[in-house]
Structures are given as C-alpha cells and as structure tokens.
Design brief:
heterotrimer; A alpha+beta; B mainly alpha; C mainly alpha; B: mainly alpha; MetI-like fold; 14 helices; transmembrane (chain B); ABC transporter permease (chain B); MetI-like_sf (chain B); membrane (chain B); MetI-like (chain B)
Chain lengths: 571, 328, 306
C-alpha cells in the first residue's frame, strides 16, 4: 500500500564514488565524530542533548538529496527541519498557533494586510543574521518564479506586495486573506536572501529547477550527510531556541516499500513510524511494552458521487448507498480497525467533535458514529428510484492502484451493495489518470479523501463550495462531485469574518446539508499514521497533548515533534 | 566480414525499434507527468506552477509528437538523457542511473556468474556419472526449483532469516549508518546485505544451467571422438574435461551471454522484494509516476546491455568454435 | 499412439500430467474441493484463524478461507497460462514456419522481427504495458503473447528449414499440392512434438510472468488468482502477522503449476532423446553387464551396480 499525503522525492545521487576516496581502512559510522558534541546551550535546565530518532516512513523511492522547500517533492525533507515558517498552526488542537520566525502579527480591520514582527537573534546556519528582509524576499521570490508559488498566493489569494521595514514584514492582499493564513504563515519556509538572491547559487538554473543539496536555514537541524539510502540530520548548534533541539541526530532512511519499513519498526531499529501496519496488535504493539500507536483522524475518505450525470444524481440512490454500507465493518476489515468509521455529517470525530450537530445527525437517521447497515431502508429507497436486486443498478467506482486498503474497503461495500441491488465495479487507475478523471468529473463514483485542514471548515469548503467546482470535462479544484447550493456558499463565505462562536454554528449548519443532500458519502476517517517507541525517546504527541500532527510526513509539524522529544537516558 | 556487418545492422535496427516502442507506448497510454504531479499535490498545489516547472525541465505537454520523437532519438544517442520529471524533479538522469547501476551489476551480475559456474559444474558431474546419486535426484529437483517464482522464495527467506531469526538483513544495499569507503565494515555490510537476495536468485536460476549442461554432456559423451579418446587410452579426467565438458559447454556460452545481458532488466522483482536500490527499482518508480525521460534512459540501457552481450557471445563463438567460423 | 505410450511410461510426464489434471479439476469443478462458492467475500470469518477442519489452511487477514480462495484462484492462473501459451505458440508457428518455407526476403524480414522481439527486454516492457493498459486479463494475455512467441519462432524456423528439402515434401510438391496444404498437412504434423514442447515452454513462462505482474498489483483485481493472493498477502504482511499460509500456499501452488509444465516438457526431451533418461537400477544392472561383456572402459562399471 502506498499512502502518503505528500509524495516525496527520490533517486540516487553521487553515492559511493566520492565518499570512497574519503574513507580508508577503518569503518566509520556516519556522523560518529560530531554526533556526540553538544550545543553548549543546555544550561537552562531544559532537556540535556542526546538520543537518536530513526524514522520509518515509506516513500517508495530513494533520496535524491534535494531540499528545495518550494518543490512539492522535496518539502517533506526540508520544511520545518531546515526552513522554518513564520507561525506554526496546529491542526489537531483547534488551530493553536506557535510563533516561530515571527514573534507576532497584526491584521488590519478588513484583513487585507498582515504585519509580522520578526524574531530577533535568529541566525542562518551559516552564521549570518536573519532579518525581516529575508521574509519579504521569500514572498517576492514566489512572484518572480510562479513555479515556486505552490499555493497561488500571488494569483488566487490576491497577494499584491510583500515589503520589509525594520523588524516587520508586511503582506498586502486584494481581498480578505484570512483563509489563506495557514498557507502563507505555516506552509512557506523562509529562505536566506543572501544566498537565494545570487544567481550563482543556482548554478545557472532557475530556482524551481534547483535541488538545494546543502541547505542553509534557520531550523533546528542540518543535513549531515545525505546519501541515497539515508538522510542524517544533526542538531544545528546555532539554533535560536535555547537548549533545543535535545535530539542530536535524526536518521531518515529511504524505504522503497511498506514491508521493510514495517519490519524495521517492529524490530525496534526505527522508533518513529508513519504508515499503515497491518494487524498492528500482533505485528507491532505486542512486541514491546514501549511500542505505542496513536493515529488521529484528520479528514474523511468518502464516496464522491457524480451529482451532474447518471443515477448518482438522484438523491434516493445516494441515500440508499449511505444506509446500506456498514462503516464499522469496512473500517474493521479494510482498514484493520485503524481508520475509524466516518459519519454522514462529515465532521471528523473525535478530532473535531465540538463542531458536531449531534441532534441533527440523530434525527436525520444517520447515527453519530458506527452506522450499522440499515438494509431495509436502503432497499425501499432504491426501489423507489426504480432499482432492485432483480433490476440492479450498475455503478463503477474509481480508485487508485496500490491503495490496497481502499480496495479492501470497496470490496466490502461491493458485497453490501449487491444485497440491495447495486452492482459495484471497482476500477483501479494510476494516480495521475485517477486524479484527472476525478477533477474532470468523468466518473460515476470516486473513492477519495480530501486533504482537510485545521478545522472542519477547510474540508467542508473543499467539498461543497461551488467555486471549487467546474462543469463536467473541466478540472474542478476540490469540489469533485460538483455540489452547488447558494445557501451553503453564503454560509461558507460568512465564516472568515465570523466570531469564534458563530464559526462553530456555521460549520454545524453546513454539515446539516451533508445529511440532507448527501453531496458526498463519508465512509472511513483518514488518519495521520503514527507509531512510536518510547523506551528511550520521550515527549511524543498524544491524544491528551496533541501539540502537532504526529506523523513525520506532515510538515512543518515534524519540526514541532522533534523539538518536544528528548532522550531519557541522556538526562 | 559480411557476418559482422549483418550483426551490426541488426544491432542498430533492434535499438531503434526498442527506443521507438519505448517512446510511443507510454505516450499512447492514459496519464502523463503533469497529471502525476498534480495528483501528488492533491490539487492543493497549482497546476500551472507544475506545468511551468516541467516546461523548464524540457517537457512540454502539447508539443508536436514527432518533433519530440526525433529530438528524443538524438538525445538518446548522444547520451543527453536530461533530467527526471517526476521521480526526482530536476535530478540529472545520468547521476540517478549511475548510482543505481553498480548495485544491480554487483548483486545480479555476480550471482548470475556464480549460478552459471555452479550449475555448469554440477551439470558436468551429473552428466558424467550417469545414474549416480547426483544424476538421479538432481534433474527432478531442479525441474521444480526452476519453476519457483523468485519473489516467493525471497519472501520465505526473509521470513526465516530476518523476521523469525534476526540473522541477516532483509533490505538495503548496506547499513546506512556506515560511511561508504574501502573499509572492512562497509564491504562486509554490502556482502551481508547481498546474501539473501543472492540466495533467492541462486535457488531459482541454478537449476536451468544444471539441466542444460547435463543434457549437453550426455549428448556429447555419445559422440565418436569420445569413443576415440577412450580407445586411445586417455585418462578419464582428460576425457571428461578436455573433450566432453569443453564441447558441451559451447552451446551454453551463448545462453550465458544472453542471461548476462538480461541482468539489468531482470532485476525488477529482486530489487522490489529486498528493497535493493538498483536500476530495476528505478524503473518501477519511473513507470509508476510517468517519468518519461527516466523510463527512456533505462530502457536504452537494458537494450544496449542485451545487444552488447549478444555481440560479444557471437564473436566469442567465432573464436572458440571452428564450425561457427566455417559458417560465418 | 506409440508416442502416447512412451509418454505414459515416463515418470516425469505422468507426475506432470496428474498435477495438471488436478489443477484443471480445481479450476472447472471447484465444488469438488470446497463448499464455499464465494471465497472472495471479505469478512466471512474471523481473520487469521489457525488451521482447523473448518479451515484447512486457516483464514486470511481479510477474513476469507485461505483454502477455498486457493481452489478458486486456480482457474485464472491456469487459464492465463494456457491461453497465452496457446496463442504464443500459434504465432511462433505462423512466423517460424512461414519464414522457413517461403525463404528469401520474407524470411529475412520475419527473422529480423523475431530477433528484435527476442532481444527487447521483456519484463520491463510488460510492466509498462500492464501499468498503463489497466488491469484486465485480456491485456495481460495479449502482452504475454506479444512478448512470448519469439523464442519458439526461432526454434521452429530452424526445424522447418531442415525439413524443407526432405523427400516427402518434394514429392508433395511434385504431386502439385498447394503451399498451404503442404505446410498444414505435411510439415506441421512432423513438427508436432517440437510445437507441443514450445507450448509447454510458453505456458511455463506465462505462469511466472503473470504471477510476477499480479504480485506487483498489475493483475485483474476483481477476480481471485494465485498471484493476486500473493499481492494481498504481501500487502497485509501475512507472513509476519499471523497468516503465513496466505502467502505460502499460493506461492507453492504457482510453483506446482509451473513444475507440471516443466516436468511434461522435460519428459518430451527424454522421449525425443532417450539418452537423457535417468538410469534406473534395473537398467543399470543390464547396462553394467553389457559393459562387462564388451570389456570396454571401466568408468561405467564404477557406477554403483549393487
């Protein structure tokens, strides 16, 4: 199973050839000489330095040792660890903000302009000081080279200028930009002007082509060294947070498939896991009392029905499907119980339970959590639409090759739907083809999970806002089922400027349309896969202290986790 | 001379056909690099930004197919393989291939040679001692082992040697905590990591060599010149090695050359099962994410390897076997 | 008839044929072996049950009965092998015999084609084709045929060339028979044993290649097959996570199917070339006696004659 949210890079560059000249007759271990030396900043009584974290995260590729934070393929290795954002936003803890390179910010009244105060005393890992000019430079770089502007800040978000004066940096937008805060404050890593402004740095290439093999950032780690098989990060001795990071070394081996990654996790070779471990109880948890897992749900995996054409445009058909599927069974078999069953309101529980309109979900007939199959109701709805086991409805659902848990989910649904008179055919397509069909609306049903965000608003907006849709045959950005409801649009538009309390009410009202119109049919909840070994390394995020998304594939959250970790034996 | 010209002509034509197939097949199939990148960004990342990036790497979505084709043929011949589009956007393909190549050559190449040597040796013994223990048990055993799928053997070896007992590593080319260099630890680590995949390859490939060698040996032993040798009172040893085995080996040599040629392209499953970072795995990656330039370069490499091996075996046969010389 | 008799006297052939018969029965009358007629359905039983009388090979991690899954998986694996083997052989015969019989430019062109296909690295090509053409058995068979015929064509061409000037063909030509008649009714029957051997070789190749593709997840996902079982077993860590037979059973089954083709094929070689047959004790004793009588050489007598 290949399931990673952001698929990173890989390929091998200059491996043994150059290194072979350096090493001679004795076997040297990577970073063996420098790893133990401390940062000298441990006087504050915080955790003493020491300890190694080894990540088990299947990428399907070897490392290409590229750290350009503006390449979607390489962000995973560099955002946070090397290049830090202005503000960290915790999606699991009600959007709690942690100041990173900014010490604070202020919006103007209509939220079209934001002023960041940058942190004093921060230096780049080459010793040069970090300033507000670096911030303005970074955003202007995205304008110069649009291939770097991954979140369309200068186009869709309406960014018009990025300037710096003294210790402040100002971003000005055409319209209210609050909904983009997460993108520009949390997802853009700030790069050093003194290197990135020099053409010679890129060796004749444009910045988007540049691999950035020896990155210079403000983050807690430096790359030392990187090979095709493994990236080793060592603590940055100049890091601005006193006595951080405590963990002196992070190993990030490249795994080509899940199998070896899981084996290394189970043998204790790796202590930070980020993937689906089948039968986790016997395969992993039972092997040591120090092995734990906590994979918090973050978004829905849902059936996206085509609302514009075919039988799925009929409400009764969608209702019948939602009643007929046993989400608990799908979760148990397809996901081994590790991705919990979803519910028709689309609100992820327990992560976002405070947004749930419990009363409405109860009266709608779709239970709050485990929805046991209501076959009779489904049958009568479907026969009302003109279908029955004798006259079955043929539907094809598209899914992605290699997503075997999804294949298993759909296999369970197939047998459940057959009972009420729907013949479900599963069509596995390659990632690219699948996504193109999804965007263009050329499907009957699609099994898919949106990316979600810090509140249910992000996912609901992705799924339901009519501007995110497009006519069949043209790419929709996120509203693939092509739902269009002016009432929902206006609710979603009010959200940005609403007070915190009425934001909850808006989300509840929007989710009521999920149970009324069934624009999509949530099945299970996507989780952030997370396994950890706390024998020596302590300080992991937990359900009671969800200070960051716990999986190492989520950046810049990975940096937050590493800043919280420490080695018990070093204390 | 005419023979050589024919062979070289054949070489060029085959190369052209292989390159052409590899250019058009992926392009006529659904999916393309842009779609793949957009899909990986889950629509969060602007499609225009991705298209711009691909264009700066030299891939233009809507360019005329034939123009692309001729430019491609030129680039393949001149070794200008370009940069990867999706597997490692922007990384030079030459570097990617060169760093994966030694692992495949080392593991699969060496194992193929060992399997050939061992298989030939056992085959000679079995053919010579007709009806001996070796001869009565081996053929049937090896008929079965040659039919075993490689990856099943690999999975079982991993289960026994790495999962149940932590005797040998099940993945990687070497222990990544060791700095590569000419040190005993590094070389030992490479050997240790190669042991299981090599064993699985041996188990499934040695049988073929044993069977053909045994059969060749038996056929050769019935020839008149062997009788002649015996009549002259030559020692058994001399007849076995100098007369029989030598001649029985000839037909196998070209098969051996072919299998050396297929070392690179036959490695896909080996590398997949053992997480071994060679060129076979690179191909799966490239195919997975529609990385056309990488796919093309690898395919070129695979085809050239086979062609070179065949040419080499042709010339070798010309030298070793007078009969072939007469025909040529 | 004589051929058939010698086939039935060959131990390897008999073993191979019996295995094949068993697999054919499994494929077309699965009800004989298991009462579970819908083994694909997930969650029928508790996952990872150990071996018991109810579940001869335990249950899979997805709650299926491993044994009935194995029985129902036979059909696809066998069909792909036989159909792909058949069409590849037909293509080999067409190309090989036509090239040899017509000669000249046609021969040059067809031989060129054969060599090109023989040299082009097949497995990577199959992976590319299977990946993009979607996961259907038709595509897989087409790919296996397109890549699997060339070896046989080369062999058949060689044999047909050696037949071309034989007397019985000459006489047919003198009788004024048409070319197609000569090829179909004079040449092909003579070549039948090589054609059958080719079919077995192509089928053996297809068993392995198809299983490899299915194992990589490039097979038909909607029908059960042995390669498919391996794919799922690997994805669910069957070996480590408590249902090892889920992976081992189909692996062994593929090997057994392959071995049956290989055994029959090998038997064909032995029948064609009696010298290759294993020496049995009974024969050995006779041989040893003969050797002694002829007083020729000492080595054969050294062979354990007890």
């Amino acid at each position: 199973m290949r399931r990673t949210t952001v698929v990173a890079a890989g390929a091998a560059i200059g491996l043994a050839a150059t290194a072979a000249l350096a090493g001679c007759s004795s076997t040297q271990h990577v970073g063996g000489s420098s790893g133990g030396s401390s940062t000298g900043a441990s006087a504050t009584g915080a955790h003493k330095p020491g300890g190694v974290v080894t990540i088990s995260n299947e990428q399907g590729q070897t490392w290409s040792c590229a750290f350009n934070p503006f390449s979607p393929s390489y962000q995973l290795q560099s955002l946070g660890m090397i290049y830090e954002p202005l503000v960290y936003v915790d999606a699991l803890d009600n959007q709690k903000e942690t100041d990173m390179l900014a010490t604070g910010y202020t919006w103007n009244a209509d939220k079209t302009q934001i002023t960041f105060t940058v942190r004093p005393g921060v230096t780049w890992s080459d010793g040069k000081p970090f300033t507000a000019a670096d911030v303005a430079f970074t955003f202007n770089l995205l304008k110069q080279d649009p291939a770097l502007d991954l979140y369309s800040l200068w186009s869709a978000a309406g960014l018009t200028s990025a300037t710096a004066s003294g210790n402040t940096a100002v971003l000005t937008f055409k319209q209210n930009a609050q909904t983009y805060f997460y993108n520009f404050a949390d997802q853009v890593g700030i790069v050093p002007e003194h290197l990135w402004s020099e053409k010679s740095t890129f060796g004749g290439k444009s910045p988007d082509q540049w691999s950035d093999p020896t990155p210079v950032g403000t983050g807690p780690y430096e790359v030392n060294p990187c090979t095709a098989n493994n990236i080793q990060y060592t603590a940055n001795p100049h890091y601005w947070q006193p006595s951080e990071p405590a963990i002196q070394k992070v190993e990030y081996p490249a795994y080509l498939s899940n199998d070896p990654a899981n084996n290394d996790l189970a043998s204790g070779k790796d202590n930070w896991g980020n993937q689906f471990v089948p039968n986790i109880q016997s395969f992993y948890l039972s092997k040591s009392p120090s092995y734990h897992t906590w994979s918090p749900p973050v978004s829905n995996v849902a059936l996206f029905p085509n609302l514009k054409q075919g039988a799925t445009a009929t409400l009764a058909v969608r209702e019948a499907i939602s009643y007929a599927i046993d989400r608990t069974k799908i979760s148990d078999i397809g996901e081994n119980g590790q991705e919990p069953p979803a519910n028709q309101s689309g609100i992820i529980t327990p992560t976002f339970s405070q947004y749930q309109d419990v009363a409405n979900l109860q009266t709608s007939g779709y239970a709050t959590t485990a929805t046991s199959a209501n076959t009779q109701k489904a049958e009568s709805l479907l026969s009302g639409a003109g279908y029955s086991p004798a006259h079955p409805l043929n539907l094809t659902v598209i899914s992605i090759t290699g997503y075997t848990d999804w294949d298993a989910d759909l296999a369970v649904m197939k047998s459940e739907l057959a009972a009420i008179g729907i013949n479900l055919t599963v069509d596995d397509e390659t990632n690219g083809t699948y996504f193109s069909n999804l965007q263009n609306g050329t499907f009957q049903l699609a099994y898919y999970g949106e990316t979600g965000g810090p509140t249910p608003y992000t996912e609901l907006r992705e799924e339901l806002l009519s501007q995110n849709s497009a006519p069949i045959g043209q790419p929709a950005s996120t509203n693939y089922e092509r739902y269009s409801n002016p009432a929902v649009d206006s609710l979603l538009d009010q959200y940005a400027t609403a007070s915190a309390a009425s934001q909850i009410s808006i989300i509840q009202q929007v989710s009521d349309y999920m149970t009324k119109d069934l624009p999509i049919i949530p099945v299970v909840e996507n989780v952030d896969w997370f396994q950890y070994d706390d024998q020596d390394i302590k300080g992991w995020p937990t359900a009671s202290d969800p200070y960051a998304q716990p999986g190492p594939a989520i950046v810049p959250d990975m940096e937050q986790v590493l800043l919280h970790l420490y080695s018990a034996s070093a204390q | 001379m005419r023979f050589i010209l024919r062979r070289v002509g054949m070489f060029v034509f085959t190369l052209w056909a292989a390159l052409t197939l590899n250019f058009f097949i992926p392009r006529f199939m659904p999916g393309n690099p842009l779609q793949d990148l957009v899909a990986r960004g889950r629509g969060k990342i602007s499609a225009q930004a991705m298209a711009d990036m691909l264009a700066s790497f030299g891939y233009k979505q809507n360019e005329n197919g034939f123009q692309q084709y001729f430019a491609y043929l030129g680039n393949m011949v001149t070794g200008n393989w370009g940069v990867s589009l999706t597997v490692a956007p922007g990384a030079p393909i030459r570097d990617m291939v060169l760093s994966a190549l030694p692992w495949t050559l080392g593991l699969i190449g060496v194992t193929t040679i060992l399997a050939f040597l061992a298989g030939t040796g056992i085959g000679i013994a079995a053919g010579w001692r007709r009806g001996g223990l070796v001869d009565s048990v081996l053929p049937t055993t090896f008929v079965i082992t040659t039919a075993l799928p490689y990856f099943v053997v690999g999975m079982l070896l991993i289960e026994v040697f790495s999962v149940t007992n932590h005797w040998l590593p099940n993945d990687y080319t070497y222990d990544y905590t060791i700095v590569p260099g000419f040190s005993p630890g590094f070389i030992g680590s490479i050997l240790q990591h190669a042991l299981l995949p090599a064993a699985a390859l041996m188990i499934t490939s040695v049988g073929g060599w044993i069977l053909t060698m045994r059969n060749n040996m038996i056929t050769t032993l019935a020839e008149d010149y062997i009788r002649m040798g015996r009549a002259k009172g030559l020692s058994n040893r001399k007849i076995m090695y100098g007369y029989a085995a030598r001649n029985a080996l000839l037909p196998n040599l070209s098969g051996f050359a072919m299998s050396l040629g297929f070392v690179l392209s036959g490695a896909v499953l080996v590398e997949w099962v053992f997480n071994y970072q060679g060129v076979g795995y690179l191909l799966l990656d490239a195919v997975d994410s529609a990385d056309y330039p990488l796919m093309q370069a690898l395919f070129l490499l695979y085809t050239v390897a086979v062609l070179v091996a065949i040419l080499a075996s042709d010339f070798l046969m010309l030298r070793l076997d007078p009969r072939a010389r007469a025909k040529g | 008839m004589k051929f058939l008799r010698s086939l039935l006297h060959n131990r390897k052939a008999v073993a191979g044929l019996l295995i094949l018969l068993l697999i054919v029965l499994m494929s077309y009358v699965p009800g004989l072996f298991t009462s579970n007629s819908n083994p694909d359905t997930l969650g029928q039983y508790d996952p990872q049950l150990p071996i018991s009388t109810a579940h001869l090979l335990g249950t899979t991690g997805l709650g299926q009965d491993t044994y009935s899954l194995l029985v129902y998986g036979a059909r696809q694996s066998l069909q792909i092998a036989v159909i792909a083997g058949f069409f590849a052989t037909v293509l080999s015969v067409l190309v090989g015999v036509t090239a040899a019989y017509l000669g000249g430019v046609v021969d040059d062109l067809l031989s060129m084609l054969t060599n090109v296909v023989l040299i082009i690295p097949t497995f990577p090509l199959i992976v590319i084709l299977a990946k993009y053409a979607g996961q259907s058995n038709t595509v897989m068979i087409a790919v296996l045929v397109a890549t699997g015929w060339s070896y046989g064509a080369n062999q058949l061409r060689a044999q047909a060339l050696s037949l071309r000037n034989r007397e019985f063909l000459e006489s047919a030509r003198v009788r004024g028979e048409r070319r197609s008649y000569i090829i179909c009714f004079e040449m092909l029957p003579t070549m039948s044993s090589l054609i059958v051997a080719n079919f077995l070789g192509a089928a053996l190749y297809s068993v392995g290649a198809a299983a490899g593709l299915q194992f990589l997840g490039l097979g038909d996902q909607s029908h059960d097959s042995w390669g498919q079982m391996l794919y799922w077993a690997q994805n669910r860590e069957a070996l480590e996570a408590g249902s090892p037979l889920w992976a081992i059973a189909p692996g062994v089954a593929i090997a057994v199917l392959g071995a049956s083709f290989a055994l029959i094929n090998y038997a064909f070689d032995e029948i064609g070339n009696p010298a290759l047959r294993p020496v049995r004790r009974k024969d050995l004793r006779a041989a040893a006696k003969a050797e002694k009588l002829r007083k020729e050489g000492t080595d054969h007598a050294l062979v354990d004659a007890a």
